[in-house]
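ARCHIVE RECORD
Type: protein–small molecule complex
Small molecule: magnesium ion
Source of inputs: curated submission
Record status: active
Notes field left blank by submitter.
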Amino acid sequence: MRINPEEITSVLKKEIESYSGEFQVEEEGTILEVGDGIARIYGLTNCMAGEMLEFSNGSAGVAFNLEESSIGAVILGEYADLREGATVKRTGSVLQVPVGEELIGRVVDPLGNPLDGKGPLKTDKFRAVESDAPGIADRQSVKEPLQTGIKAVDSMIPIGRGQRELIIGDRGTGKTAVAIDTIINQKGGDVVCVYVAVGQKASTVAGVVQRLTESGAMDYTIVVNASASMPAPLQYVAPYCGCAMAEYFMYEKNGHTLCVYDDLSKQAAAYRQLSLLLRRPPGREAYPGDVFYLHSRLLERSAKLSDDLGAGSLTALPVIETQEGEVSAYIPTNVISITDGQIYLVPELFFAGVRPAIDVGISVSRVGGSAQVKGMKAVAGSLRLDLAQFRELEAFAQLGTELDAATQRQLDRGFRMVEILKQDQYEPMSVVNQILIIWAGSKGKLDDVPVDRVSEYENAFLDFIAATHSEIVEQLGETGEVTEELEALLSPVCDDFSRSFLEGSAPDPRAGAGTGEESEEEEADDTEAENAAAEAPEAEADAEAETAADDAEDSDDGEEA
Ligand SMILES: Nc1ncnc2c1ncn2[C@@H]1O[C@H](COP(=O)(O)OP(=O)(O)OP(=O)(O)O)[C@@H](O)[C@H]1O
Ligand SMILES: [Mg+2]
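STRUCTURE (tokenized, with ligand):
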């Protein structure tokens, strides 16, 4: 075979011309040591901090510690089948999760893999798990309310869109309940919700998902689950992943979002585990030195964006579990200082039947007031103070001292307000109804209603107003204001209703059969009480003191809290 030198040169020339000088080199390392969700890797010299790695079994990882001769990485997934010497590849990008509308209604793990058996996610959009919080010029102050539907919260601890409000309390005090009710209450609104479950039992999360589905809340909710059985690295990244999924709606869709992180104490524990395994030095309570930054960089990502950026918002409801009410432990104090207020739930109130068990004394909302509906602000203005005074009086009244009429009235009002603020789980209330009933309570319209009939009164009253005075409801719904004219209209209606309710002939639209008897009894009780009141003020005080004592027994534990 003859070789034509000209041909060869032309081929070589062509090759040289098309040579672009770009090498596609994949950097590979090998595992030195692996176990407990972490790996020590040799050979990835150019690896970036926080870079996503790919293990030979398909698990993803994140470079955590960059050391002189090796790197420490966390493994986000299975690690049981990884061996010493196995290869690890760099991916050149930071950790990402799928985002988009397709995630709504789904239950996913922190990396966006479906857990609900509804098939793969059809989304091609991704967002970095760790991203910078918006700067000060990109934000504006919180100004729209985020209604939780919980009377005690919306009236006294109002939350605004873009706010970070901590839900804190011991085990089983209703922390998750507050968050879930808030999600359910967004129904029919424009808020996309993300519920991030960290380190919880899978059965608990399944219960939550079922509840959300039954209430129709999954139509606008994403559930991210890193249950207790998942490796610690997944529990650690879950809140950031959930936040990234919400950020998509805030930044790209200019929408409103709500993120619940349930709970951050478990995330901190997972992070502590990682850090100790990676031999980072332990600090207070064995948490690593940067555990504050762990939560601050997450919660700083909540924001109300400026109009230039589309005015979207991300409201965060982080949850922290305390041990024996110890709010001065390391993680609780950290998160309290990062957030814009806290809803503090106490077991004493919870077991006394005051649910939600919110301790009004130390629960605050530092920014939500400016976002509160005007009417609510007006009717609930002095509620917090009144309740605090009531608690003090209640303690005093327990000593059995004789009280003057004014004090007794204040006590009676207090008992009724406490009753009004009780609310069942999964029954969020519209802000109009909240305003109506709190208004009625604070104006003393319920003063004659026996304490144990307050909730019955509340239901009947709200049904009555809705059925017969829809104009009031409409006006309140539109303006959100309690004007003098409205009060003038509402007051006689309310008085009439109270009278007929106590006489047993309340035009209760829901009244069923068999209420007649009860009403007669009530009537008798009532006339007795009235007579007594007419005869001597002391008699009234006595009669009422009995009820007072009864109730005091229930809630005296709460006082100590
Ligand atoms: N407002 C309420 N009315 C009646 N029951 C309630 C209310 N809120 C919560 N509960 C009940 O109290 C129990 C504990 O509530 P929840 O699970 O929300 O507490 P938690 O603080 O999240 O608990 P954990 O620490 O286990 O996460 C549940 O059985 C719940 O149904
Ligand atoms: Mg819970």
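CURATOR ANNOTATION: The longest strand covers residues 313-321.
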